């Protein structure tokens, strides 16, 4: 994982979920459930599935999954095979957001599933309040 301050005064955290020591057992279970959608997504010409999320003040929300073809253009939901439950896939991906992203100052990010490589990338930013003292003055 890498950490860097952004111009929005947020702590940026990026992690790629791959097999190995860097992921938890729960993340691997979610990944296996996501992989079950791979054939249907490929058949529909979908190259990536992205879920955006944000939250603060004890509330967090994930947006509906966005689908892209190999050309990088959005794929409309009607082209997805009948019986395919897009909300289920979106919910699985949203479960990979860092715990607590909707608490206190909160955070935001995206989770992207690359259907071709089978990799899931989580890009997360924490909101952070920064205060700066000014020199005291007497009047």
Fill in the keyword field for this structure.
single chain, 139 residues, alpha+beta, seven-stranded antiparallel sheet, 3 helices, 7 strands, disordered N terminus
What does the model show?
The chain has helices at 25-35, 38-43, 86-94; strands at residues 2-5, 11-17, 48-56, 59-62, 66-68, 107-114, 119-126. The chain has 139 residues and is of the alpha+beta class. The model is unreliable at 1-21 (pLDDT under 50). The protein is elongated and about 75 Å long. It has one domain.
User: Cα distance, first to last residue?
Assistant: 49 Å
Tell me the strand percentage band: 25-35%
- Main pleated-sheet profile: 7 strands, antiparallel
Write down the overall geometry: elongated
Secondary structural class:
alpha+beta
Mean pLDDT: 81
Q: Number of helical segments?
A: 3
For the secondary structure, the number of strands is: 7
In terms of quaternary structure, the protein is: single chain
N-to-C SSE series?
Answer: EEHHEEEHEE
Number of domains: 1
Unreliable residue stretches? 1-21
Spatial extent as radius of gyration: 18 Å
Helix content: 10-25%
